Structure formats: structure tokens, C-alpha cells
Amino acid sequence: MTDSQQAGINAGSRAPELAVTGIDPGPVRLGDLAAGGGALLVFGSEECPTSALALRNLGPLCRSWEQAGLIATAVFEDPLEVAIRVARRFGWTGRVVSQAPPYETSLAYGLLAVPTTVLVDRAGIVAGTVVGWDQPGLLALIGQAAAMLGAATLAVPPPVEPRYKPGCSSKAAIDPEIAAAISSQRADDEMEEMFERGWTDGLPVVPPTPERVEAMLGGADGSVSLGFVPPSMGEASLERVAACAVLAGCRPAYFPVVLAAARAVLDPAFNLHGQAVTTQPAGQLVVVNGPVRRAIGLNSGMGALGPGFRANLTIGRAVRLLVTLSGGAMPGGLDRATLGHMGKVGFCIAEDEETSPWEPLHVERGFEAGQSVVTVIGSDAPLNISDHRSRTPEDLAYILAWAAATSWSTNWWPLAEPSVFVICPEHAEMFRAAGWSKQRLREFMFDAVRRPAGQLRRGETTPFVHAADPAAEVPKWASPDAIVLLVAGGEAGRYSAVLGPCTGMGSQIVSREVESG
Amino acid sequence: MAWVGRDYVSPFDERVRAPEPLAPRPAGITGRAVALLDIRKNRGSEFLDRIESQLAAAGAVTTRWAKEIFSKPAALALVDEIAFRADLVVEALAD
Fold first, then answer.
1. Quick one: which of A254, A381, A494, B88 could link to A341 by a disulfide (CB 3.0–4.6 Å)?
2. Which residue in B has a C-alpha nearest to residue A238's C-alpha?
3. Structure pTM?
4. What are the structural domains of chain A?
């Protein structure tokens, strides 16, 4: 059916410009596609078996056509991610572009059916069209392209059966409501609905159905309020916190930990308001201690600061969703972070109390070892500290401590707010073997990192440095108490880390016990 | 796209708050009480010093105030006191 009226656009007409999206940034222009001699547009859609037939049989030829100056482009009536997946699955080696409803390009070409193959010459004039799978028709069209390019021959579709197969209706040719219903972005796709509602941090979420929220609450009264979440002061009802936990992907067993973290970040001493809106990168680090770690599968071992463990990732994420959705601190909105860091998606770690030679964080903070406790700390991203060669605790402590010298800024000394050191098991073992207490390590680190005030007076520095005698030794931290020590990580590998502070806003570390159901 | 017919628990606080109306704008500043609020960011007070001298030259009566810390909302008592004593407020940002 070459040049058939069914194509809606006839040979000799000017080919309409494309309104499509490609994988590369920037607009896709027909003139660019045809500039080498000609463009072959193959309109298709995911749901159409005839489109699949065309893609499968024409696809392997595209590369050789492109070398001869004919750029073949599959123009899908589907989202780009669907288009790319389908095209590559069928061996299409040409370009791939996508149209969104209402499929303006298909409309402009008067499409009634897909596949429709349109040959456009260098001047942007339609040279011919073929509707449906029509192997002889396509053979003739490719011959026409070869003549257009001045090429001796172009590879042609193989004589496979069936030689003819009718196409399917173009989505541009059917009622928009029906098109939406059969689109991959259809209105009953609840995952897409979550994005439409803005109930996300940019990643897919679990839709908070009443059933899921009820399961998360575990019988608790959802109307109970924990207070108001800054900066927008949305009310943190238990139901809303549970909705955030569902969205984040938490299991109901994690909810007591999420609740303890929510109570902790809402404590005015934590100053969530400042942290939520600051231009600093700071996020809310959640540290979990006590028996609940093992009970819910929190990872404190290999990859303790990284991905792979549902409890860690979703608990941290639930807290951040509470801040961003219920509290209104969406990045780029009220969250004014210049850069932010990936820990702001969610950052929940557990201490490896069983490996640690020291009392765990929650015991230091006045809780019993058998209590489960969440501690929240305003925190920057982790900086890795590699040390495989130190052979004395003094050398290792020196290396660890000096890694933090550039926390916040090279010359911003002293820091009043806490820096969190996550000490790996092999490093911790060196301190254990030498009989170092946590306090001894902390004081050694505090004493180790000092510089004369005169050397710190370059660029931005603190009023403290400006006021000090140039020869006076200024410590990196205002006191040893600003050094928080945790043990976590894999049993092999001498890598610890330091997380710089959220600075200058009086944020304190806050701990809350995890209340059992 | 319109989403209908589905029931979810919203993470948003869906209450609609009425916008606060702006206070009436004064015709001039001569004789007016102007509160200068330092939020305590770096060099904010220098900015207020300059503003204060210009306001004084224009006949305003200035008073100086400061928040506890820049990163927290002003205490309600401070807001109430400024509202009681001043006709106008200049709040200094910083850096």
C-alpha cells in the first residue's frame, strides 16, 4: 500500500517537524535526521504485534543504512523507557524516539495505523510511505531510498512470512480516553500516581493504602500527634508518620524505630527547622542501638553505610519523607541545600555493639545496654579514611583525627557540633588490643588536631581564630565531646569514615528509646 | 492526569490555611518606630548599622533586636514585643 491514502500523508508533501523525545538531550529535528541523504521514520507502538514485526525485520538493517546516509528512526507512541526497551528487544539498531499523548507527530503525519514507514528526502519532502507490514512495499521504498541517496544498493528486508500483515490503530487515531486507557502511563498505574501526587523523594514509593497504613500502625491510634514537622509545621499524626513509613517501604516491624526517630528529630533541641531549610548539605543521620537492631535485620556489618539492607534504607527514608512531605522541606522548595548529599534520601545505620570494644553510643548517652535506642545527628556525607599500615594506636588515631581537619571547611576551627567517626572492626581491634578506652581515643584525637591560629587566617575562618594569638594552637573541635565514636563495618578492610557536622545552628544530638508495640 | 476513586492516607498535612493579610503600609517613616532585627548571621549587624543611620536621617525612631540564632524561628515573645513597640520592621539577612 505504498503512498496509500491510509497513510494520510502523500509523496511530495512537506514532512511535518517531529515533536518527540530521544535519549540524547535536546530536540530531535527531522532536518538533522535527513541531512545525510534521507530519513526513514518507522512509527510503531508497544502493544502492536505488526509494529514488532516491522522492528524485528527492519531493525538489523538500520546500521548499514545509516552508513549510507539513511537514518532510520523508530517513532513510538509510548514513553521513552518503553520505546527503548521494546526497540532493543526486537533488535532495532536505528534511532529511537518517543511521543507523549496526544501524539502530535502521528497526528501531523495523519497516521491511522502503525507501523507506518515514511521515507523523507534531504529537502524534507515525503518520498513515499508504507502502511502496516508490507514486505514488497518496503522493498520498493528501500529501492527508492537507494536511488535518492545515489547508492548502488541498500540492504532490504528479508522475504519472511507473512509478507503482508495489517497494522494496528495509531493511538493518535483513537479516542484520547481509550488511548490513555491502553497507554503504559495509564490512570490506574498507582506507582505513577504517587509521582503525580508528589508523594515521593524522586524514587518509586509504596502507595499508602489504608490497609498498609493500618498494618504499619499495628493497632496504635493513628490520631495521636507527635507534634509539628518544620518548616511547614505539618502535623505528625501517627497515621501520617505511618503513611511515610509505608511510602518508604518499611515493614511494620520497623515502625517503632521510625517512631522513635520521628520523636527525636521533632525535639526542638535537634533544630530540625534549621536543618531542613539550610543551604548546607546536612541530612538527619539515624543511629540505632540495642536489641532491636538484630530483631529487625538492621545491618551493622559489611557495607554498614551503604545499600543492600531494607531496614537501614527504609527507616532512614521514612524519616526523610516525614521531613520533606509532612514537613514541606522538598529539595529546591523550602529545602534550600546548595548541593545536598545522597544521605538525605535516608541515612540509618546501626552500631556493631558485639564487635565494639567499647560501650555503645546509647549507653554513653545514659541508657541501659538492653534498651533499644534511636539517636539522631545532623550530619554531612561520610568521608572514607583508609589506613592499612598504622601499627600503633597513636598513629591510627592521628590518621583518623586528621582526616576530619577539612570537615566543614579547611580553616573553620574549632567545630562546636559533633563529627561522627564510624570505626571499622579492624581499626577498633587495634584500640582494643592496646587497651584504649573510648574516652582515651576521643581525647587523643582532640589533642592531635591543632594548628596555630596564624595558619588558619586565610579566607574564611572563625571569630575564635581571628581573636586568638597567631601562635596559639587551635583545636579542630571545641571539646572532645564533639567527637562521636561508633563501631560498624565489615570484618575485613581497614576503612573507617568521618561524617562532618551540621554547623552553626545549635543542633544537638537527641536520643529516644524505641517503645515496643 | 486526574486521579479518582482511590483511597490513600496522605503524607501531607492537607489543612488549608488562610493567608495572613498584610498590615497596612504607612505613607512615610518620619516619626515611625522601626525595629531592626538582627537574625545573628555573619555581618548582619553591619548591614543594620547602615540602615539605621539612613532611617535616623529620614526621621525614624529605631530600636535594635536580635534573634537567639539565625537557624530557628524568632521566639514568639520577641515577635509580640516587636509588634507591640514598632510600626515597621527591617530584618537583616546575612553573609
1. A381
2. B11
3. 0.70
4. 5-182 (3.40.30.10), 190-513 (no CATH)
